[in-house]
Amino acid sequence: LVRLPDRPTGQHVYGAVMKALTLCGCLALLGCSRAQPAGPSLRALPVKAPLTIDGKLEEPAWLDAANTGAWLDATQAGRVVPHTVARAAFDAEALVIGLYMADEDLQSTDHVDVTIGDARWELPPDTPMRGPVGATGAVDFDGTANDARDDDEEWAAELKVPWSLLGLRGPTDALPITFTRNDTPRGVPERHLLWRGRLVFR
What we know:
By secondary structure, the chain is mainly beta. Helix content is 2%, strand content 35%. It contains 1 helix and 11 strands, in the order ββαβββββββββ. Strands 1, 3, 6, 7, 10 and 11 form a 6-stranded mixed beta sheet that branches. Strands 2-4-5-9-8 form a 5-stranded mixed beta sheet. The two termini are 29 Å apart. About 16% of the residues have low confidence.
């Protein structure tokens, strides 16, 4: 399992998120039948060879791919949240999402969800993925689930979604995407994290 750097120095960020996410309104352009997508963007990285779906995020493409930046606490703006980011890559056959989650106390109730359009997949750290059939998911973690006696570190997940499952023949200009995370830390209330925006491919 590779802890992916978020700065050129390789330093990993665990800071507080100090301001709430603002979702911009869609712009209606004169003579244009489609409104422009709102919110932040995550640029997906094109890859020539299929990525191995093992949850480890060890392939060089994941270091080259852009990330979402820290996710926000969905219920309390400004609260310290565990470091969580997503990345995306694609080839001619499928879209692949890579997710990294810092976690001091892994629990079976933890999960990260990926929603693309009307399709949603739920990936827990120690049980099978749930969601539309046809996608492939894998998880890898450092620690022991459901054991408060030890200090866990992190977990990661990969999700591969064939374009056909999204009703597409290949990458488009942009896709709406939402990432959510349910985290059950030791000694504090359950936390819910959110990143909502769009995937862009060009």
